[in-house]
From TrEMBL:
It comes from the Bacteria. SUPFAM superfamilies: Actin-like ATPase domain. It comes from Candidatus Zambryskibacteria bacterium RIFCSPHIGHO2_02_FULL_43_37. This is SHS2 domain-containing protein. CDD domains: ASKHA_NBD_PilM (cd24049). InterPro entries: ATPase_NBD, FtsA/MreB, PilM. Pfam families: PilM_2.
């Protein structure tokens, strides 16, 4: 095929997804061939050691250290990244999201009205943020407001509460300083970021199917566990639990008298369903707290919108814990499943098992790479 590649050699776009989490950087490189997204490489680097902490721990690092870590990951031979064109995630905690009610007016008017309304939700001057928004489709409008328009007995419709019909708008804001910081991290590492996207949007792209019923995504990271309820591609609710997988490590280390490094190894090797009851009990303590809060968020949503959440999809490194899925199934008020984001890309068969196991951790990076790949073709 050398003859053809001379002519079509550049028609294989490549894209890199970069997820800078609080405990690790994850990258995924894809290429497009014959209309298909193909996995070329993926890799991860723990950030803890760059701040004097151990692998698996969340760490706050200055921009230059993160940049150095990213550059180190790019240099790793086994990872072998070959493209600079990338998309980067912005942590959910650096964003502000709200569903706001607006009068039903033309898009042009909304473009003027949303930023004004947004001021009520954004604690800094509006000029300091990047603002984005989208109208939530009509059929998704809250049950209460739909009910106001139901036919009355004896014909006719009940008058809506307000004279003007309302629509719901999802508003998203990111501080410009945050974007500048991430821009600096990628450029110092010698990469080009085509876009910055809040992590949950990348995750949704990587793990959601076309289902219409609401789904909960649980992202278990090192320090926190993030919960989102997604309906028809739109984030309808979110919540952050101040517990994560590193709490399991530190509890194991304390109660079993081990170093954090030993505890981290034990967590990953034994997990939540091993033979050692004392290990299981320590892990269960952290998980019980997380499951209880997740169930509360779930119930709140179901009651408020009078809709059943169909399932919970587990992502994040914490979701790779052995035995977690079974515990989630037993404790959750919904079905639970592990995300399989690598199933959205083609990969060699011999990698199947490992990709299934590490998939939840790479959901954000895969979602970013998929978007970047689509944009590369435009
Ligand atoms: N195989 C495994 N078994 C158990 N825990 C694991 C495994 N692999 C990673 N973890 C844990 O997952 C956590 C990291 O998850 P992840 O990489 O999703 O976090 P992050 O993206 O850095 O955090 P955040 O999204 O909150 O910023 C660490 O605490 C790590 O110990
Ligand atoms: Mg993360």
């Amino acid at each position: 095929m050398a003859f053809f590649s001379k002519f079509f050699g550049n028609r294989e776009p490549r894209a890199l997804g970069i997820d800078i989490g609080s405990s690790a950087i994850k990258v995924v490189q894809l290429k497009k061939k014959n209309g298909q997204a193909i996995l070329e490489t993926y890799g991860e680097l723990a950030l803890g050691p760059y701040g004097g902490l151990s692998v698996g721990q969340a760490v706050q690092l200055p921009t230059d250290k993160i940049s150095a870590a990213l550059a180190d990951l790019m240099k790793e031979k086994e990872v072998n990244v070959t493209t600079k064109s990338s998309g980067l995630s912005i942590p959910f905690s650096s964003s502000l999201m709200a569903v706001i009610e607006m009068p039903e007016v033309a898009q042009k008017e909304l473009a003027i009205m949303v930023p004004i309304e947004a001021r009520k939700y954004i604690p800094v001057p509006i000029s300091e943020v990047m603002l984005d928004w989208s109208v939530i489709p009509r059929s998704d409008v809250r049950v209460e407001s739909v009910a106001e328009e139901l036919p009355q007995e004896g014909g006719g419709f009940a008058a809506p509460a307000a004279a003007m019909p309302k629509i719901d708008v999802l508003m998203v804001a990111i501080h410009k300083e945050t974007i500048a910081r991430f821009q600096e991290i990628v450029s110092s590492a010698g990469l080009d970021a085509g876009f910055f996207e809040i992590e949950i949007f990348a995750t949704s792209r990587a793990v959601m199917d076309e289902g219409l019923r609401p789904v909960m995504i649980m992202d278990m990271g090192a320090a926190t566990t993030k919960l989102y309820i997604i309906e028809r591609g739109i984030v309808r609710a979110s919540h952050t639990i101040n517990r994560g997988s590193q709490d399991i490590t530190s509890n194991l280390s304390k109660s079993l008298n081990m170093t954090p490094e030993q505890a981290e190894v034990m967590k990953r090797e034994v997990g939540a369903a091993g033979d050692d009851k004392s290990v299981n009990d320590v892990i269960a303590l952290v998980l019980d707290y997380i499951f209880a809060e997740a169930n509360t968020v779930l119930l709140d949503y179901e009651q408020r919108y009078n809709k059943a959440v169909s399932k919970t999809i587990l992502v994040g490194g914490g979701a790779a814990l052995k035995g977690l899925l079974e515990l989630a199934k037993a404790n959750f008020k919904t079905e639970a499943e592990l995300a399989e984001p690598f199933s959205k890309v083609a990969a060699p068969a011999f990698l199947e098992k490992i990709l299934r196991e590490t998939g939840p951790e790479f959901a954000v990076a895969i979602g970013l790479a998929l978007r970047k790949l689509a944009e590369e073709e435009e």
